[in-house]
Amino acid sequence: MEFQKLSQAAEDVRQEIVDMIPETTTLTDQPTNISATLLEEDENGTKTYGGDLLARKIYELISNMDIGTGWKWRLLYWSKRLELLNDRKQGYLLPLSEKIIMSPGGALLAGFYAHITNEPILSSGAAAILIVPK
Fold first, then answer.
1. Can you give the pLDDT at residue 50?
2. 3-state class of 95 per DSSP?
3. In angstroms, rounded to a whole number, what is the distance separating the alpha carbons of residues 76 and 54?
4. Could you tell me the CA-to-CA distances from 25 to 4, 41, 130 in Å, in that order?
5. Of the candidates 36, 62, 59, 33, the residue with the CA atom closest to the CA atom of residue 47
6. Measured between alpha carbons, how far apart are the two ends of the chain, in Å?
7. How far apart are CA 33 and CA 53, in angstroms?
8. Are 24 and 128 in contact (CB under 8 A)?
9. Which of 110, 107, 78, 132 is nearest to 12 (CA)?
10. Residue 83 and residue 102: Cα distance in Å, rounded?
């Protein structure tokens, strides 16, 4: 598994996205006009976030990552260990939490992203953006 450091421009946008998610923000009083929309929460506590502002920020982030075009994304927060389902065995995982422990793969730290070619188990209590081909 290959880890890449985000450019400063991409890291700046990543931090803006971090502040949009209740589980990752460090803002003491998160303004509602910059909050992402909770789209779904399943019985395991896995939350999916979306919204127009979030979508614009993630597309800006992707363009700063120099990974080309033709991608879609999901922003997830999970409270329990999670198997990352990756049908095409291709994509990128970008943490919004300080770190995600992947098995196999090791620790993926904030400010980096991983090229994913498998379906790793991810540590609990984390949030990330999964970027996959359209």
1. 96
2. strand
3. 12
4. 23, 19, 19
5. 36
6. 21
7. 9
8. no
9. 110
10. 9
Exposure letters 75-95 (e unless 16+ CB within 10 A, then b):
bbbbeeebebebeeeebbbbb
Of 74, 81, 79, 88, the closest CA to residue 116 belongs to 88
Report the distance separating Cα 46 and Cα 48, nearest Å.
7
Distance, CA of 55 to CA of 17 (rounded, Å): 10
Give per-residue pLDDT as tens, 100-111.
999 999 999 999
131/134 Cα distance (integer angstroms): 9
CA dist., res. 15 & res. 26, Å (int): 10
Model pLDDT for residues 77-92, shown as the tens digit of each residue: 999 998 998 888 899 9
Yes or no: say if 57 and 113 are a contact pair by the CB < 8 Å rule. no
Q: Tokens 């009083």 map to which residue? A: 29
How deeply is 2 buried, as exposed, middle or buried, from its count of CB atoms within 10 A (0-12, 13-18, 19+)?
A: exposed
